[in-house]
């Protein structure tokens, strides 16, 4: 067991915040803030976590049962847990195993993993690493030609669903990245990098692993016809040229015969349009507070979307999840499943695959404990009767 794996296995590591603290000590400030930060003033980022405090529990006491059933059926897949691992862009920057390690950990836990287009590993390798379902999150980076090739590769590799993100007309303005010189470190010349090198050199263990891994790799799943794999430095510009429209969804629906998921829904109107577009599921998501600042937290929008969809398709939710009780609250409000992003990414940054294992275990244990204390034997039985929800919702 490596020293990093031992650190997350410590009995003192009992929450996602503990993993976050270890990650902050292990990786350079620029990389940590890329993971940890949000857009503009980070109002949505903060509110996405705080909003869970507005919802309180209504437990049913003096109830005993031998086991708690955490299983959920998502897009036809039986999952051992009511949460999946959300797509995190270029996880390989946090740890060399990156997306491969996260998919492996998800499969081992009996749940699903969603691979970002902005991945450091080939989609075929990521799919092969997991024993569970793996879904592919699609940006139209590199144009339709690149997207068509990725969709075909995902089909051949056996990906179970296509998750199309609709909230990235441009990349959100993340002030921490600009202050930390992320652009200069990724794509600048040597003289541009010099002011920011101390933060990299102060994390020798991360640096050695990064260099052994070959440094920054091109994006192997964004292969532009006639040019080859897109470089990581082109991502912001590529996103600005690849806005997904409802017409694009119709085109994607023709290419992809499997389940289609629309990610980034924050209004009833977009929820209904997702149903009309033939989606099998949608994810209520504000992109972790990394795109448009000052939008509602996902949990706050969830009741509006549930009412609009009326059970026609599955509803997922992501945003601000740090505890198993957050997952339980989202399920009670009406989510069919919950996506966890930063929660497992902190574990990855802290200790690679072992850290993801620990993050999943922390959340699983917390969900089970919460259900027992609520007096509810199964996640399938959760509903609003277990919550006090503000009347303004």
Architecture blueprint of SSEs:
Blueprint: H1 3-9, H2 16-26, H3 29-36, H4 43-50, E1 56-57, E2 72-74, E3 77-79, E4 83-85, H5 98-109, E5 113-115, H6 123-129, E6 134-138, H7 143-157, E7 162-165, H8 175-179, H9 182-187, H10 190-193, H11 197-201, H12 204-212, E8 219-224, E9 228-230, H13 235-240, H14 246-255, E10 260-265, H15 268-276, E11 281-284, H16 298-309, E12 314-318, H17 324-333, E13 337-340, H18 342-351, H19 353-374, E14 387-388
Parallel strand pairs: 4-13, 5-6, 6-7, 7-10, 10-11, 11-12, 12-13
Antiparallel strand pairs: 1-14, 2-3, 8-9
What does this structure look like?
This protein is of the alpha/beta class. It has a single domain, classed as Aldolase class I (TIM Barrel, Alpha-Beta Barrel), CATH 3.20.20.70. It has 19 helices and 14 strands. The protein has helices at residues 3-9, 16-26, 29-36, 43-50, 98-109, 123-129, 143-157, 175-179, 182-187, 190-193, 197-201, 204-212, 235-240, 246-255, 268-276, 298-309, 324-333, 342-351, 353-374, and strands at 56-57, 72-74, 77-79, 83-85, 113-115, 134-138, 162-165, 219-224, 228-230, 260-265, 281-284, 314-318, 337-340, 387-388. The strands form 4 sheets. It has an 8-stranded parallel sheet with strand order 4-13-12-11-10-7-6-5. The longest helix is centred in the last third of the chain and has 22 residues, at 353-374. The model has no long low-confidence stretch (mean pLDDT 95).
């Amino acid at each position: 067991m490596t020293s990093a794996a031992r650190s997350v296995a410590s009995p003192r590591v009992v929450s996602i915040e503990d993993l976050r603290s270890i990650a902050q000590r292990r990786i350079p400030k620029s990389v940590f803030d890329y993971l940890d930060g949000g857009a503009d003033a980070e109002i949505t980022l903060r509110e996405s976590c705080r909003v869970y405090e507005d919802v309180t529990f209504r437990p049913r006491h003096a109830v005993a049962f031998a086991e708690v059933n955490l299983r959920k059926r998502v897009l036809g897949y039986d999952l051992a847990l009511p949460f999946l691992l959300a797509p995190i862009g270029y996880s390989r920057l946090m740890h060399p195993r990156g997306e491969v390690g996260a998919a492996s950990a998800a499969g081992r836990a009996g749940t699903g993993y969603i691979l970002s287009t902005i991945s450091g590993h080939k989609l075929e390798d990521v799919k092969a690493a997991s024993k569970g379902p793996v879904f592919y999150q699609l940006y139209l980076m590199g144009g339709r030609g690149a997207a068509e090739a990725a969709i075909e590769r995902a089909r051949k590799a056996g990906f179970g669903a296509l998750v199309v993100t609709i909230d990235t007309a441009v990349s959100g303005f993340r002030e921490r990245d600009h202050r930390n010189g992320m652009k200069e470190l990724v794509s600048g010349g040597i003289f541009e990098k010099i002011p920011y090198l101390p933060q990299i050199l102060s994390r020798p263990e991360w640096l050695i692993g990064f260099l052994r891994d070959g440094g920054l790799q091109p994006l192997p799943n964004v292969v532009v016809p006639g040019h080859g794999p897109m470089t990581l430095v082109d991502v912001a510009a590529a996103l600005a040229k690849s806005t997904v429209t409802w017409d694009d969804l119709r085109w994607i629906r023709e290419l992809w015969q499997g389940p289609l998921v629309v990610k980034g829904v924050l209004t009833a109107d977009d929820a209904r349009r997702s149903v009309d577009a033939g989606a099998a599921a949608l994810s209520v998501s504000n992109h972790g507070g990394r795109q448009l600042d000052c939008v509602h937290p996902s949990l706050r929008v969830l009741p509006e979307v549930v009412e609009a969809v009326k059970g026609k398709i599955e509803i997922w939710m992501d945003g601000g999840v740090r505890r198993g009780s957050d997952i339980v609250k989202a399920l009670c409000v009406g989510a069919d499943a919950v996506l966890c992003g930063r929660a497992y990414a902190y574990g990855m940054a802290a200790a690679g695959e072992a850290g993801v294992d620990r993050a999943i275990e922390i959340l699983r244990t917390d969900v089970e404990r919460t259900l027992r204390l609520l007096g509810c034997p199964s996640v399938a039985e959760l509903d609003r009767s277990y919550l006090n929800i503000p009347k303004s919702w």
